[in-house]
Amino acid sequence: MKTLIFGAGNLLLSDEGFGVHFIQYMQKHYRFPEDVELYDGGTLGIMVTHMLEDADHVYLVDVIDTTGEAGDICRYEKDEFMLGKLPIKMSPHQIGIQEVLTLSDFRDRCPEKVSLFGVIPQSYDAGVELSPLLAAKLPGLAELIVGELRTSGHAVVGFV
Fold first, then answer.
1. What is the CB neighbour count within 10 angstroms for residue 104?
2. How many angstroms separate the CA atoms of 18 and 5, rounded?
3. pLDDT in tens, 12-43
4. What is the full DSSP assignment across 65-133?
5. Domains along the sequence of the chain with CATH
6. How many whole angstroms separate alpha carbon 156 and alpha carbon 106?
7. What does the pLDDT look like over 100-149, one tens digit per residue?
8. For 43, which DSSP code?
């Protein structure tokens, strides 16, 4: 079973790059087995459909536009986005994940399990650093996803 951890975002717009910063954090702090792939999807949108289609389980990490406070992390599962329960555009930088998954579904290649961890950004200002609020969210989200990976049998090793 192949698992993909996919971070999306634009590194030039502070918190908009959260998903990419998350992938970098994971690469720096953990070692993953061959059946778990980390991928910096940047702002490629539909150009990375093949990455999603090659996985059985996908964890998506991105910023989202929803009600709540900056720094809140919301979790959504595949059924929620496939049934249209989420806004069409969760992030301003790309084609929506709903469109990408719908395209994969039409091709009968949609991953079996998809989990989106979306964080509400504090800032879209120009800059390559996350706001301190969102930077502080990286370790907790990493621990959550690594815990799920370990529970499902993946041998993830943390670095000190």
1. 17
2. 13
3. 989 999 999 999 999 999 999 999 999 988 77
4. --SS-TT-EEEEEHHHHHTT-S-S-SSTTSS-HHHHHHHHHHTT---SEEEEEEE--S---SBSS--HH
5. 3-158 (3.40.50.1450)
6. 33
7. 666 666 666 667 788 989 999 999 999 999 999 999 999 999 999 999 99
8. T
